[in-house]
Design goal:
The protein is mainly α. The chain has 3 helices and no strands. The longest helix has 37 residues.
Length: 90
């Protein structure tokens, strides 16, 4: 256990940050899952709408520091490609 005031404060801050970051990561995963579910369902318009909602959420993860830029771009790119393939197949 920390003995200094500053170390105790840092522990409190770390706990709070961890909680917030977990929540953000979970929210991003939920949005991604909605897109994947729509793709699996085969409905291109629903998948496109879900992707439009997921994209800003994924990129917000970059600005908040829970995702790296390349990771977020890769996720968006792969989802976009899958939605386009679904649209062209329909």
């Amino acid at each position: 256990m920390a003995h200094h005031k500053s170390a105790q404060k840092r522990i409190r801050q770390t706990e709070r940050r961890t909680e917030v970051n977990r929540s953000r990561t979970s929210r991003i995963r939920t949005f991604i899952k909605k897109v994947e579910t729509a793709i699996a369902g085969g409905d291109a318009s629903v998948a496109e709408l879900a992707l439009r909602q997921a994209q800003p959420e994924i990129m917000r993860g970059v600005t908040k520091g829970v995702l790296k830029q390349g990771t977020a771009s890769r996720k968006v790119s792969r989802l976009t490609r899958r939605v386009k393939a679904l649209r062209s197949a329909a």
